[in-house]
Every structure is written in structure tokens, then in C-alpha cells.
Amino acid sequence: MTAPALARSTPFARRKSLVLTIVMSLFILYTLLPLFWLLINATKTQGDLFTTFGLWFGDSFNLWNNIVETFTYRDGIFVRWLGNTLLYVVVGAGGATVLATMAGYGLAKYNFRGRKAVFAVIIGAVAVPGTALAVPTFLMFSQLGLTNTPWAIIIPSLISPFGLYLMWVFASDAVPTELLEAARMDGASEMRTFFTISTKLLMPGIVTVLLFAVVATWNNYFLPLIMLSDPAWYPLTVGLNQWNAQATGAAAQPIYNLVITGSLLSIIPIVVAFLLLQRFWQSGLSAGSVKQ
């Protein structure tokens, strides 16, 4: 490019960069503003929530008292809900990631009869929203006597059509077929090849599927709402909504300060999970690569 052409393109590039900066700043503000509101209001008392500006602190800093009261309210039921949510995430989301990884890898690297039919079924399953399956799932689990048990949440969480499809697409390109053939010629079994070689190459995809599954299970609301009637098995989503519902009715007992504080505490594990797992997106890109 000549000097005059470069000089003519520079103002346009600067204007374009300025517009993109403004747009991205608006997106960041849109994303962070609710979190800022949540953090600010978690420091307020019940009275300050209605008498002070929503985007600034109240007359007293009550964050620690709100946290203590959240963990001790009704004999510490919040701790039970937190434990239930962790159980559903570890077993459900973790199991969904393992199953999606192994199934996606198998579909990508092995040829067998009916492979295209399986692909069509998976694509169709991805297109079906989870809420459309909630009622049929409830009826089926009711016939099996599994409603109002942890299995009513864990078993449906193990199925992740989108995670399977994602791993299928990712494994098709991330794992070279020549590398698998070389491992087989060296006498490695299929399971050893998968766990020692393929999983390293699949790590970015595995982490992506895991994060999707963790967020979906952590935020799952409708399925636990219809499956569970015992508050002792509620996850945080249903439990906090139950606290919020206490503000209505003849014997209303509003505890908005605990609902907001509990909501703030419930997002901390998700943030920590993202911070801990994001490094695998970078390290996994080169792990186990083939040396030419």
C-alpha cells in the first residue's frame, strides 16, 4: 500500500475503531451493571433496600450480617441447598461431560452402520428445548417412583445433546487419524489411546462442554421445580425463589436482603469455575500435538 493510500485509510480505521470501542463499552456496561447492582444491594439492610438509591450503598454496610443470616436462616437451609446444587453439578454435569466426550470421540473416529442416523437424532435433539421435555420427563420419573429424589435431577442432567455434538465436531479435526493409527501399531489399546493421547488434544473441547454443562445444571430451575416437593432437596435456584415468594400472601415475611445476598453467593462458584478452567483453553491447544 502506498503512503497516500495508507494516509487515507488511517482516519477511517480510527473512526471504525472508535465505534467498535463504544459498542463494546456498552456491552460491558450492560453485562456488569446487574452484577454491580447485586453487589451494592447485598450490603444493605431490608429497610435500606427501599429507602436508598439502588446503585449506591445504604446508610449502613450490612454485608457480613446478611451473609451470616443467609447461612443461618431456618437452621441453615441455604447450606443444604448449596450442597444439593454442588451434588447435581458434580455428578450431573461431570457425568454429562464424560459421556459427551466419549460418545463424540467415538462417533468422530469410528465408522459403523447407522452413524448418519445417530447424527440426525443428535441434531434433532439439539433443536428440542429442555422445557418441552420437562413434563414428559416428570411423568416418566413419576412412573418409576424417582420424583422428589436427587436422581430426578441428576439423570436428565447426564444427557447433553449439544455437548455431544460439540465434541463430535471438535474431535473430528483435533485428533489426527494418523496419530491413532500410529498408537495402534505400537500396541496401545483403544482405551489407553483415548485417555493418554486423545484427551490431551480434546482438552479445550472438554472444558467448553464442562462449562456449558455446569452453567446449565447450576441455573436449572424448571426441572427441579416440577420434580421436587421436599425443600431439603431443592437447588439454590428453587430455594431462593421460595424465599422470594415469602413476600406475598397473608402471612408475608419478606427477606429481600437474604434473597439478594444468597443470589450474590450463588454466582461466586460459577465465577471461580470459569477462572480456574479458562487456562485449559490455552494449554490444551498444544497439548499432545504431533511433532513433524
From TrEMBL:
CDD domains per the UniProt record, alphabetical: TM_PBP2 (cd06261)
Subcellular localization: Cell membrane
Transmembrane segments: 18-40, 86-105, 117-139, 151-171, 201-221, 255-277
Gene3D superfamilies to which the protein is assigned, alphabetical: MetI-like (1.10.3720.10)
Domain ABC transmembrane type-1 span(s) in chain numbering: 82-277
Superkingdom, taxonomy of origin: Bacteria
Entry keyword set: Cell membrane, Membrane, Transmembrane, Transmembrane helix, Transport
Topology with respect to the bilayer: Multi-pass membrane protein
Pfam families named in the record: BPD_transp_1
InterPro entries: MetI-like (IPR000515), MetI-like_sf (IPR035906)
Family the UniProt entry places it in: Belongs to the binding-protein-dependent transport system permease family.
PANTHER family attached to this UniProt entry: ABC TRANSPORTER PERMEASE PROTEIN MG189-RELATED, ABC TRANSPORTER PERMEASE PROTEIN MG189-RELATED-RELATED
Protein name: Carbohydrate ABC transporter permease
